[in-house]
Each structure stands twice: as C-alpha cells, then as structure tokens.
C-alpha cells in the first residue's frame, strides 16, 4: 500500500484550541512533539475543553521554538512558556488522575479566564511527567500528554468523503482533531491497518476511535452543528463490542466511530507530509464497513 501518502499533519499545542498544520513532526515519548502538551484547567485542576466552552475552537495557536503563542479575536494574545515555570499537579481528563506539570503563569491565566468567564489556568506536561493511562485503558503502552488517550490519531480522507456524501451538512476533517491525515482511496480500510510505517516512524493501529460531541463544533467558528453526529449514528455506530473487555468495551459501545487510534515510536523519528504510509500487517475491523 505504498501509494498511500501523508496528506497533512496536525498538532494541537493546547488541548481543545486550534490546530497547527505542519510539514513535519518529530516523535517524542508521548506522541508528536508539541501535541496536547498544554491543557486548560479550572480552579480544581480539572481539564476544561470544548465540551464546556465551544469558544476554545477559535483560539489560534502558533509556535516560536518551544513557546506557544495564543490569540483570540477581541481578546488580544498571550504566551505560554515552560521556562522557570512553577510545578503543579493537575488532573488528566481520562481517569481524573494527577499529572506532574508546570503552570503557565498569571498573565496567561488572566487572559484565558477573561475569555471563558471563569477562573482557569494553563498547565503543561514536562519531560519527566511520564503519565500513563489507567491500566484498564492503557492500550498504547506509552506515556501520554493531555490527549484523551491515543498518542496519535490517524484519519482517512476517503472515509470522510464517504460520510459527507450521506450527511445532512458538510464538515471538514479538522472537526475530528486528527494528527495524521492520509487518503487511501478506499473508505474504512484504515480500520484494518495494524503495523504501519511512516518515514522512520513505526505505528500500530490499536482501536477505531469513539467520538464525543466535539466533532459537532465547527473548528473555525466555534458553532455547534448536528453533523457529523447524525451520519455517524446512521452508519458508524458501535452498538456492541463483545470482543473487547471492561472499560475499553464501555468506551466503545454506544458511540460513533471515526479514525484509528495509534501508538507511535521510536523517539527521535520524524514523519513528513508526502511520506508514504506502508502497512506491514492487518487486523479484522472492530466495526464492519458500512454497506
């Protein structure tokens, strides 16, 4: 399958804020460098996302080295840096478990609090955070940053096009907040990919990804829509997954599914737009391809 190539790479330096489209990305212990390295937390240290504040979709992000630049229309801008930052402990969204992190500082906290209308701060994972998902959900067997669970999410434009042809309204791939976007030509074939290579990186597709309400939020305007929830429920709904167990099964059943959640390594590898995706092994899809 060497004719499949990487069409785009997206990273999200701050969880729930806007993506950055990059030409290449380095692999680190938690996934792709700078992806979900920061999250917004409330006064209790709990993660704040677009699920509560749709306006976060409109917060622009940019990188200047390791410094993150944030801006929002009508709200000016701020920066996030881990240099000389105070150590804090915050909660990861999955499992509500503590994560060693550093604080984004008072200026950035005031900026995001004014935008959201509640007291919030920024927190960043560090190289020694070494956070792992709860053992009952640790499918990827590697540390994670502030992703929900998967170090890397891979999506296929052919599957997106299949959904769009049947949807009530159009929506773009960025609604699903993926990292690696390919066009395999054939929809849903990505559900069968297991061991893969992109550049000098090795990936393993572990599970098709269950979707929450965030894909209904337009990632340009912050407005909520009906799609893709309606078309996913009609054609990509996981009613039951008897081959899975425990919390993983609970995570899958009763959700729409789109994209493949992957582990990735080794540290130091690089993936680039235009790289071929080579599939080394396949698996039976968890969800049968729609008719």
Task: Give structural notes.
- The protein is mainly β and 291 residues long.
- It folds into 2 domains: 6-30 and 134-279, Beta Barrel (M1 Pyruvate Kinase, Domain 3); 36-125, no CATH class.
- The chain has helices spanning 106-116, 157-164, 229-235, 246-252; strands at 6-11, 20-22, 24-28, 31-32, 38-42, 47-48, 60-64, 67-71, 77-80, 87-91, 98-103, 120-125, 152-156, 180-182, 195-198, 201-210, 237-238, 255-265, 270-272, 277-279.
- The strands form 4 sheets. Strands 1, 2, 13, 14, 15, 16, 17, 18 and 20 form a 9-stranded mixed beta sheet that branches.
- A hairpin with a 5-residue loop joins strand 8 and strand 9 (77-80).
- The radius of gyration is 18 Å and the shape is globular.
- The chain starts with 5 loop residues before the first strand and ends in a 12-residue tail after the last strand.
Present the secondary structure layout.
Layout: E1 6-11, E2 20-22, E3 24-28, E4 31-32, E5 38-42, E6 47-48, E7 60-64, E8 67-71, E9 77-80, E10 87-91, E11 98-103, H1 106-116, E12 120-125, E13 152-156, H2 157-164, E14 180-182, E15 195-198, E16 201-210, H3 229-235, E17 237-238, H4 246-252, E18 255-265, E19 270-272, E20 277-279
Parallel strand pairs: 13-14
Antiparallel strand pairs: 1-2, 1-14, 3-4, 3-19, 5-6, 5-12, 7-8, 8-9, 10-11, 11-12, 13-18, 15-16, 15-20, 16-18, 17-18
